[in-house]
Recover the amino acids of this structure.
């Protein structure tokens, strides 16, 4: 039987949840029945090196900044050569060019995934609403995300399928105590330090600023605490300046982009996600899979992952006092941290594993009856 060939399109492989999801699909999905391949518009992203067998699984284009009228023609040539049964576009950055090229090449089925916030520009919304109607399936990453897309785009709810992001629970699990001690030592952190950490793009939507203000409050009660901020982005210097102005720089570690996320999560006692908006956060999935008690803002898909006071704690967005209170509550109660560690890990294994996400995608692709 001929394999069902799926070609995924994404704008670039920068640091982000959508990029992580697509890389996981490419690295773990291929089978006797399915062949997934990735086409990236902008080459040499910071996560490109994570693609396994890039010569076989990756195509990189050379998109110019802004609108590049060459793209649909380049994509059309790729489609004719690879002959995909399904084109799966990811996020707004590939929707228009992907659709035009797929129609020219007469691709049998079109799927589009949104992974986060939709811009509310009128022309943007109109184009998305129009093109979504011409796709076989639209995918959202949480029920809240689906509801938001329906409200924002004006697209029928029954035509949006929810497929949660998934994490490799066999990889993201608690590391050994010896590895934890060694990694902490490499960061200049000793055993007596409580480590509070976050991972993500240093952008306004991730709101690490509120976490810094919360951490200043935490230090008053736990002066030996350390805050580890992993990631990079446009707010890197702003966040460092904020830490300096709050006089907490000596207790904050800005690690930049890292490829040792598993080990870094292993150094933490509590993981915090202070975002203003989320779809289904991959870093939150990874932290819970590693057995970390988590504190997250009550936004987007977070409440669908974190059961408040069971598998973690939910707090209002942009509220440093309530954020600090939730973290302090966990720091002062080791039994509660242990309980949330175990229940959080179990929730991810049962409902949000990478292989559950892949099974859901298999069912979707099979339902399109392509051959």
């Amino acid at each position: 039987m001929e394999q069902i060939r799926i070609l995924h399109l994404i704008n670039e492989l920068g640091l982000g949840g959508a990029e992580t999801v697509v890389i996981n699909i490419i690295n773990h999905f291929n089978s006797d029945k399915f062949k997934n391949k990735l086409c990236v518009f902008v080459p040499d992203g910071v996560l490109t090196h994570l693609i396994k067998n890039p010569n076989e699984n990756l195509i990189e284009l050379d998109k110019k900044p802004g609108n590049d009228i060459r793209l649909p023609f380049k994509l059309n040539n790729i489609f004719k050569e690879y002959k995909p049964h399904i084109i799966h576009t990811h996020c707004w950055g590939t929707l228009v060019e992907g659709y035009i090229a797929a129609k020219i090449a007469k691709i049998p089925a079109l799927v589009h995934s949104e992974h986060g916030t939709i811009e509310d520009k009128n022309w943007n919304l109109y184009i998305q609403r129009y093109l979504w109607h011409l796709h076989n399936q639209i995918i959202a990453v949480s029920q809240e995300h689906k509801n938001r897309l329906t409200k924002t785009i004006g697209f029928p709810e029954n035509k949006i399928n929810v497929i949660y992001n998934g994490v490799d629970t066999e990889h993201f699990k608690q590391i050994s105590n010896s590895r934890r001690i060694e990694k902490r030592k490499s960061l200049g952190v000793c055993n007596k330090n409580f480590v509070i950490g976050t991972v993500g793009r240093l952008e306004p939507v991730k709101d690490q600023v509120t976490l810094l203000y919360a951490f200043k409050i935490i230090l008053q009660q736990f002066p030996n605490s350390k805050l580890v901020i992993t990631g990079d982005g446009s707010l890197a210097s702003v966040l460092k300046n904020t830490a300096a102005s709050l006089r907490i720089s000596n207790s904050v570690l800005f690690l930049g982009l890292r490829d040792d996320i598993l080990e870094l999560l292993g150094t933490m006692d509590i993981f915090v996600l202070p975002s203003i908006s989320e779809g289904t956060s991959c870093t939150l999935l990874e932290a819970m899979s590693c057995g970390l008690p988590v504190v997250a803002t009550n936004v987007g898909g977070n409440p669908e992952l974190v059961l408040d006071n069971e598998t973690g704690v939910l707090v209002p967005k942009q509220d440093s006092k309530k954020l600090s209170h939730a973290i302090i509550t966990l720091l002062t109660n080791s039994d509660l941290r242990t309980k949330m560690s175990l229940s959080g890990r179990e929730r991810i294994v049962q409902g949000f594993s990478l292989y559950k996400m892949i099974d859901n995608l298999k069912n979707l692709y099979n339902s399109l009856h392509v051959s």
Remarks:
- The longest strand covers residues 4-10.
- The two ends are 10 Å apart (CA to CA).
